[in-house]
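Entry 14. Ran structure prediction on the chain below.
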Amino acid sequence: MSRTQMSARAKRLGMRLSFPATAPCASGETGVFELRFNDGEATMRKLEIADPQIMQVAIQQEIERSEESRYDHRLHGVLLVSSGYSCTEVGQLFGQAATTVQRWVQRFERGGFEGLREGERPGRPRTLDESQWARIEADLRKTPRDFGFEAGLWDGPVLSEHLRQCYGIELGVRQCQRLFRQMGFRLRKPRPQVAQSDPVRVATVKKLRRLAKRDDVELWSLDECHFQQHGSRCRMWLAPEVRDQVLMHAPTRKSVACFGAVSLSTGRFVWQVCPIFNAETFMSFLRRLLRHRRRGKRIVVVLDNAKYHHANMLKPMLHKYRRDLTLLFLPPYSPQLAPIERVWKLTRRLALHNRYFATLAEVLSAVEACFRHWIGPNEVLRILCCII
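Output, structure tokens:
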């Protein structure tokens, strides 16, 4: 609704409508506005999201989490095109290329709703001879470690080096990526395997919602995280016969260990780098967290069931600060209930994704530079981690 239309409606209701002088615009401007009443006067304020660029990244990550959400995303794009938007306009709204939106529309016109779902696609014609093709296909069914590489999964750089060492063939990274597609491989995000949660115990998360409404309680989500020196990978190449790959991460010592906690009401983030995770370092971090307690508030820390979270050496401290600090343990094997997991994921995306780090010091510098944006109350983490 434009400002002219809103002013006319307010006049019919016998109210005087005013707009903030700090945000002038043309009378025909449309958008989403918030209506506020003050002494019989209605004021309209345009709604905006804090740090929209970072929130776009977080929302896009949430969309990419499942095949069904990606299908809904394409369906929404086609709906906007059918409502009169151009493919370029929809692409700008969705953060996609206009040609991508065009393909969605073409697939919808050819196959209807099923055309928008993910399926198998034919590869390009072969460029290697039959013998080389068969050998490379067999190699890709194994892991890179079987050929002496440190990498745990196949990607363009690893395949390029493998072809150079074992076959004497020089192919660039982009050529190797095309080779994956020619062999029928699909680029997918690996699914980490997590044990099944107990539905009855998961239901206890309702307690978090009750605590979040109390004025004398401030909820914090706490967890530990390793940031690997090899950075982060979002997708991997899969053989055509593999539909849902489970990626087994190999243990490595080349990582930065970090405790972190985020306030679910303000978005404030507290972290501490440590050499190892144990009861002693955990207690040190709890003392650090207590320094951020607000007056009149009791800190309730939501955390998982790591062994050192239940250590006996914590009992004297927890008894001493029993009026200021409480530990609330999540049901076993329920990482999806920890809001701070979204913070770790966003950090990897903003600080580590598609970057090469020669030393662990560079990893630490990149991670802490990201964390420093969230030292005080902020809308990014508040929206990302809030509990309603």
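The two ends are 29 Å apart (CA to CA). Will compare against last week's run tomorrow.
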